[in-house]
Design brief:
single chain; 452 residues; alpha+beta; Dna Ligase, domain 1; 22 strands
Length: 452
């Protein structure tokens, strides 16, 4: 097992990794920007090293700063968390060349699955269903028009190196294709340094389903069921639940087997996620693989009784999957709300600033993952998520009631948060019936606006 791990991230995930390391008796090193000097992960790590100014591009996104800190602190391994450098193949390669273990898959796997075209080609070769689409990158608008005519409208243009909804444009008809193609390409170039795009058939009213896979270096690969991440606004998840209200056991088994097969084929090791679209008829289509831990991993932990961060670390250290992970069975139902520092009734405007009072809910089946506290200053430079509220119940109805209770106990004063908006979703009949899809939140917001 590792003696010392550097956590190359910030916020709640950095704190989450530090706590897992402490339970494994591993010393930790936090890195932080000048804006995060008072962050909780800095206070709880055994050591902390400043790596630059507030802007991510001058701190958390600089591999040389991270590696320099790792060498100064003489660490065995680096945990990248999610976001930032977690799916950067070059960074994983640099870690290996410096003889520092990257807690995640190999650079080769990150590169293969990070390229959406390669990922789709791999899935297709293995017989995993994919949405009809272009065979690869589309060179120009002329070719895009030909492919769209063959597939049939509506279509979705996607960035080859994309993520987080950037570089994506739905196209409903031929007249809209040229402008959407250019807009997606330009946005992808700006966001990822790569303007290449491809095209898929647009599946209408789908659910966004992701399967958690866990694999070690000894040939053991398992899946820990699915998470339903369909409640999104502008491709950003708001509420997730596990298991999905849309899957029966037969469909769950088929999707799980496809996920394990793909994970084995690419030689993946660690904890990753295979993402699918599930259409209204019950057919599923591969979208992509996230090769790092997901924000919403706690709901899987809660209903399968495991610690995915500790499992990541154990796998990276060369150990086999834990017996309780190999033999995990689903128990109960879990829901997660991402608590963001945003004003949901002012177009989700970011709401940085000082938290004057922070009181987290408690009680049976309630978990709060957060790095903030009373007096903490939420910086304007990073993602707006300040906490994750996770509840578990014996049934979905119990979990919904418990989440409503917990949201109404949650007190955050001094800034605006998404709590009241999430509470309103939980009261909606469609949500309580499981009758929602990836476009539902936008429709729900339109209904609220119309109702005044």
């Amino acid at each position: 097992m590792f003696q010392k791990v550097l956590v190359a991230n910030r916020g709640e995930i950095a704190l989450r990794v530090i706590r897992a390391c402490k339970e494994l008796d591993i010393r930790t090193v936090a890195v932080y920007s000048e804006a995060d000097v008072d962050s909780m992960h800095v206070q709880l790590a055994d050591e902390a090293i400043c790596i630059g100014p507030a802007a991510s591009a001058q701190s958390y996104l600089l591999p040389d700063r991270i590696i320099s800190a790792a060498e100064i602190a003489n660490v065995d391994a680096i945990h990248p968390g999610y976001g930032f450098l977690s799916e950067n193949a070059q960074f994983a390669d640099i870690c290996e060349s410096c003889e520092i273990k990257f807690i995640g898959p190999s650079a080769r796997v990150i590169e293969t699955m990070g390229d959406k075209n390669q990922a789709r080609a791999t899935a297709t070769r293995l017989g995993v269903p994919c949405t009809p689409g272009s065979a690869g990158v589309i060179p120009d608008e002329k070719e895009a028009l030909k492919i769209a005519a063959k597939i049939g409208y509506p279509v979705m243009i996607k960035a080859s190196a994309g993520g987080g909804g950037k570089g994506m444009r739905p196209v409903l008809n031929e007249a809209a294709l040229s402008s959407a193609f250019q807009a997606a390409s330009n946005e992808a170039l700006k966001a990822f340094g790569n303007g290449e795009v491809y095209m898929e058939k647009l599946i209408t009213n789908p659910h966004h389903i992701e399967f958690q896979v866990v694999a070690d270096s000894h040939g053991n690969v398992v899946h820990l069921g699915e998470r339903d991440c369909s409640l999104q606004r502008r491709h950003q998840k708001i509420i997730e639940e596990c298991p999905s209200p849309k899957l029966n056991e037969e469909l769950r088994q088929r999707m799980g087997e496809a996920s394990v097969k793909l994970t084995k084929e690419i030689g993946y090791e660690n904890c990753g996620t295979i993402e699918y679209l599930l259409d209204e008829s019950g057919e599923f289509y591969f979208m992509e693989m996230n090769t790092r831990i997901q924000v919403e991993h706690p709901i899987t932990e809660e209903i399968y009784g495991c610690d995915l961060i500790k499992e990541q670390i154990r796998i990276a250290a060369g150990e086999e999957l834990s017996d309780h992970v190999k033999n995990a069975i689903v128990r109960h139902h879990a829901i997660e709300c991402r608590i963001n520092a945003e004003d949901p009734y002012n177009n989700f405007m970011p709401s940085p600033g000082k938290i004057e009072l922070f009181y987290a809910p408690g009680g049976r089946g309630v978990r709060v993952d957060t790095h903030v506290y009373s007096g903490y200053e939420v910086p304007p430079y990073y993602d707006s998520m300040i906490a994750k509220l996770i509840v578990t119940g014996a049934t979905r109805d119990i979990a919904i009631s418990r989440m409503r209770r917990a949201l109404n106990e949650f007190l955050i004063q001094g800034i605006k948060t998404t709590i009241p908006f999430q509470d309103s979703i939980l009261q909606d009949f469609d949500f309580k019936s499981g009758n929602y899809n990836i476009d539902w939140v936008e429709q729900f917001m339109a209904r609220q606006t119309k109702a005044g």
